[in-house]
Amino acid sequence: GKKLGYTFNNKNFHNVSLGQGQEVVAEQALDLAAKEGHWVILQNIHLVAKWLSSLEKKLEQHSEGSHQDFRIFISAEPAPSPDSHIIPQGILENSIKITNEAPTGMHANLHKALDNFNQDTLEMCTRENEFKSILFALCYFHALVAERRKFGPQGWNRSYPFNTGDLTISVNVLYNYLEASSKVPYDDLRYLFGEIMYGGHITDDWDRRLCKTYLEEFIKPEMLEGELLLAPGFPLPGNMDYNGYHQYIDDTLPPESPYLYGLHPNAEIGFLTQTSEKLFRIVLEMQSRDTSMGEGGVVTREETVKALLEEMLEKLIDEFNIAELMAKVEERTPYIVVAFQECERMNILTSEIKRSLKELDLGLK
């Protein structure tokens, strides 16, 4: 907006935060902007479900005969479930849609944490070595506490709104303390970060203890001796420039796994199951009831299912003949015993797949 001369000061830029009876203000702003060629931002339209049909009509009216520079920007929070999708189809179809996804995984979160700073930040402190080491450790700590939320109750007992403000204020505090004292006050810094900056969000005693323990591992005198591991296979880097740190993350950070958070690999099972279910739910929700084919033909859902079903039945392997396999074996080593157990399990699974597919076929008939 600023680049093209649209600002509040120029009176050609209108910002309306919806809710609390702001609908009339929004309509007036839209009418004026359509006439004069202004820009309008309507924030939080998910808060005014009843007004959305009026907004759709209003946008349809202004779609013809309005000033060519007239633009509307609309923001909404994502709906928690499919039945909460309230934005009218007309608005969605006529819009260019942009979503802002939070980064996922330690790699993206660590880069994003570091993106809050620049080369000037790294050079601002007279005690460069200590400042850079603790700043990088803080970035890792920030990425870790933010991303631990994905593990549900195994990550944190409650979900906390950790944000980039916590990180930038912690770095300012670090700078002030290092400039003011001759020794690095590790205990004071850990207390400020763990009990006040980040701890200020935490309401559970065990979570507070966990946060404190992380800081005890990441911020301690050994960090300046080049001996500190932030995660298995990821040592704290030495003195580098800003781009060097980004490169170091790309080159050295191990692949995403619960080990990066100090968790057992099993912690990921619940998170991955939840992610898969969510993905399948969205895919199902987006599927159309009827699928169009070429030359005007339409394939119903039932026909699609039937085709898949027949394909699966054809692909299914015959069950293993356990008796025949046993006859071939001379010595029953542990490996072979396990193989037999797996064959039996596979037979149970195969017969269940066959049974359920035949049942589904009967249902379709």
From TrEMBL:
Residues 299-326 form a coiled coil. Signal peptide: none annotated. Keywords: Coiled coil. GO terms for cellular component: dynein complex. Residues 131-267 form the Dynein heavy chain AAA lid domain. One of its GO terms (biological process) is microtubule-based movement. Residues 273-365 form the Dynein heavy chain C-terminal domain. GO terms for molecular function: dynein intermediate chain binding; dynein light intermediate chain binding; minus-end-directed microtubule motor activity. Pfam families: AAA_lid_11, Dynein_C, Dynein_heavy. Residues 10-99 form the Dynein heavy chain region D6 P-loop domain. This is DYH9 protein.
